[in-house]
Amino acid sequence: MELETQTLTFDTKGFNDIIDITARLQRLLNDGNYDEGRMLVFVPGATAGLTTIEYEGGLIQDMKDFFDRISPMESHYHHNDRWHDGNGYAHVRAAMLKPDLTIPFVHQRLCLGTWQQVVLIDFDNRPRKRELVVQICGKKH
Amino acid sequence: MELETQTLTFDTKGFNDIIDITARLQRLLNDGNYDEGRMLVFVPGATAGLTTIEYEGGLIQDMKDFFDRISPMESHYHHNDRWHDGNGYAHVRAAMLKPDLTIPFVHQRLCLGTWQQVVLIDFDNRPRKRELVVQICGKKH
Amino acid sequence: MELETQTLTFDTKGFNDIIDITARLQRLLNDGNYDEGRMLVFVPGATAGLTTIEYEGGLIQDMKDFFDRISPMESHYHHNDRWHDGNGYAHVRAAMLKPDLTIPFVHQRLCLGTWQQVVLIDFDNRPRKRELVVQICGKKH
């Protein structure tokens, strides 16, 4: 079994920016000749998270509406009282969504549904450069 | 260390159908003679998710009430405007719950609490046949 | 590649008690001389969960406010009707947050952001002794 850790960098716009990272993840498998195993994706930082969605414009808007509803940007946050950076809402959303996602792969392909893409969501209130940690554990062919 | 990937199939009714999959997962450990390691469970598709709950009728209803509250079926979803399949609510819930769960095991048993079961939740608005990917990584005895 | 499973015990106060467990996790890596790999953290039981946050007093309060808003303690829960233990709200929150978290590490350090700590959140309505399962899979140096 092989273990390999890489980083992938993404420029994000913040404010619930939802980025499809599937192709970049799949390419790591191809480049490494991995056949079967699992890929751990992790975003260091406390204002972004990872999940999967059907990546299409309607749902991207629905996800923004959802997060605005359960943790509104305009609500009062104690975090903002202390740090005055105005991103308390982003911290709460990121903690709920969590920074890790593990995806199995077989026959050199991530085991995703046809309409299921891996997304990085950046909740912060400014553009960021995000460096994801991608760790592959599996067998090469 | 051994690595093995299998699939498990479940017929689901949709509409927040919550299915206890613990016994089927534990059986894979027993059949494979696994002693110590971790089991990754993953549901391909963008309208279902995985977590653990105490599997009893009261809580099953509470979980449905919870998801109805934070992402109501009757709300407006842009996804529905585009695709007219009426399951925008299901996409949002699944993205929040996420499609992956990793459970450690030792002495041939999943490390779950006594009143903690692994569940597949199918949020879609129709019956589905769901094929879960279960990947075991660990030592045999 | 090495595989090792340990347990860590924490006394919790319940009622959304948020505990920074980062230092204890990092110490396990140091003690085991692990260089590169991943750490799976799992909380057995159905009324607690794991995630990462910036561990500071303002945000700790914001997280409590958030959970009180999406799954209020005082709402009606069918779980309470059946079991009369009054912790239905805790079950719902724990199911949403999920009991697992996987963190990669390289060069003997967990790949966390500078202001990102790993937290155990105990939602239950009484003090508990929580035993976490921590499973490390990786290379030693």
Going by CATH, the homologous superfamily of chain A would be YjbQ-like
Per the CATH scheme, the topology name of chain A is Jelly Rolls
pLDDT < 50 runs, ≥5 residues of chain A = none
Q: Based on the structure given, which CATH architecture of chain A is correct? A: Sandwich
Q: Helices and strands of chain A: which structural class? A: alpha+beta
The largest contact between protein chains, plus residue counts on each side, is: B-C, 35 and 30 residues
| Radius of gyration of chain A from CA coordinates | 16 Å
What is the overall shape of chain A? elongated
- Proportion of β residues of chain A? 35-45%
Major sheet of chain A: order of its strands?
1-8-3-5-6
Descriptive report:
Three copies of one chain form a homotrimer. Chain A has 141 residues and is an alpha+beta fold. Chain A has one domain (2-140): Jelly Rolls. The first copy, chain A, is 29% helix and 41% strand. The first copy, chain A, contains four helices and eight strands, in the order ββαββαααββββ. Chain A has helices at residues 22-32, 57-70, 78-83, 88-97, and strands at 2-12, 17-20, 34-42, 48-53, 100-106, 109-110, 117-122, 128-140. In chain A, the strands form two sheets. A five-stranded antiparallel β-sheet of chain A has the order 1-8-3-5-6, with helices on one face. A three-stranded antiparallel β-sheet of chain A has the order 2-7-4. In chain A, a hairpin with a 2-residue loop joins strand 5 and strand 6. The longest helix of chain A has 14 residues, at 57-70. The first copy, chain A, is elongated, with a radius of gyration of 16 Å. The model of chain A has no long low-confidence stretch (mean pLDDT 97). The B-C interface holds B 1, 36-38, 51-54, 56-59, 61-63, 65-66, 69-70, 96-98, 101-104, 106, 111-113, 115-116, 137-139 and C 1, 3, 5, 40, 42, 44-46, 70-71, 77-83, 88, 91-92, 94-96, 98-100, 102, 133, 135, 137.
